[in-house]
Write a structure and sequence with these properties.
The chain is an alpha/beta fold and 300 residues long. It has a single domain (2-297), classed as Cytosolic phospholipase A2 catalytic domain. The chain is 46% helix and 19% strand. It is built from eleven helices and ten strands. Strands 1, 2, 5, 6, 7, 8, 9 and 10 form an eight-stranded mixed β-sheet that branches. The chain has a two-stranded antiparallel sheet with strand order 3-4. The protein starts with a strand and ends with a helix. InterPro entries: Acyl_Trfase/lysoPLipase, PNPLA_dom.
């Protein structure tokens, strides 16, 4: 049983899309199981449908307004670098409305409904591939994995959206009496879940470099401090997930193939820049091509 796992990583998901497109379209890898966390959840359904070009067009044309109905930060450029600071007006407005988060991401929920149709959902649900998205149940302090086989169209769309909600910058969703947030808060790289579901070979796309190549710049304001703290925590979670995944693979004699980003793409994955994401998609495609050509040269 072959599985494709795509980690969380916000706008860096464009790189994962390029890698996944090469694996599915050029290498013709026939995956039985697709598991995604956060931005990975946005990609897996279309990759399972063989519609990489469709999701590429959507993914590489989004901007901040496509994601946020209330964006909690401002982006300024100085000396060629993007700086992020708090949008006091939007944050205050959210709090006055009784919201629990700095911003809201209902525009992303609307975008999902436009780009993943009911017909596509039914095709996958009635097919032989399993699509699984990762969410964090804050109320029960648990990570949950939601399979397309277990839900109707509207519910599954909502689970995909929840998986992508990088709380507290994006929406906190109450569903079935519990509060839910981004799957990456509990499982950034769900390799272990893929193996527990029977995968004997896993291709895992990791939206980080294998080795840390940079030190974070000093925080310039409260908002950048919070984003740096969350990035630190998610990095720790990701490394732990990979270690656990390797351990599970060894115990089950499963094969693991890792696709890390070869360089640092961005230090703030909340920034969605169309041109940048187009370049990342192409670089992901070329990286997967290069890596597999290199492996073929090594094999006798």
């Amino acid at each position: 049983m072959r599985a494709l796992v795509i980690s969380g990583g916000g706008s860096k998901g464009a790189f994962a899309g390029g890698v996944a497109q090469y694996l599915t379209e050029v290498l013709k890898k026939d995956y039985d199981l697709f598991i995604g966390t956060s931005t990975g959840s946005l990609l897996i359904a279309h990759m399972a449908l063989g519609k990489a070009e469709k999701v590429k067009k959507v993914f590489t044309s989004v901007n901040q307004s496509s994601i946020f109905s209330s964006r909690p930060f401002l982006i300024t450029k100085k000396h060629g670098y993007e700086n992020i600071s708090i949008n006091h007006f939007n944050v205050l407005k959210n709090f006055l409305k009784g919201k629990k988060t700095f911003g809201d991401s209902h525009n992303l929920r609307k975008l999902l409904a436009k780009t993943f149709t009911r017909e596509e959902f039914e095709q996958l649900k009635n097919g032989n591939k399993e699509i699984v998205t990762t969410v964090s149940n804050i109320s029960l302090n648990e990570v949950e994995y939601k399979s397309i086989k277990d839900y109707g169209y509207e519910d599954f769309l909502e689970w995909i959206w929840i998986s992508c909600n990088y709380t507290p910058f994006m929406s906190l969703v109450k569903k079935n009496g519990c509060e839910y947030a981004d799957g990456g808060l509990g499982s950034m790289v769900p390799i272990e879940e893929a193996i527990q579901r029977g995968a004997t070979e896993v291709d895992a796309i990791i939206l980080q470099t294998e080795v840390t190549y940079f030190n974070r710049m000093p925080s310039k304001n409260v908002f950048s401090l919070i984003t740096n703290l969350f990035a630190f925590m998610l990095d720790r979670i990701e490394k732990q997930n990979i270690r656990i995944g390797k351990f599970a693979a060894n115990n089950k004699d499963a094969i693991l193939n890792f696709y890390y980003t070869p360089s640092v793409l961005t230090t703030n994955s909340l920034i969605f820049d169309e041109e940048q994401m187009k370049a990342w998609w192409e670089s992901g495609y070329e990286f997967a091509k290069y890596k597999n050509e290199e492996l073929n040269q090594i094999e006798p």
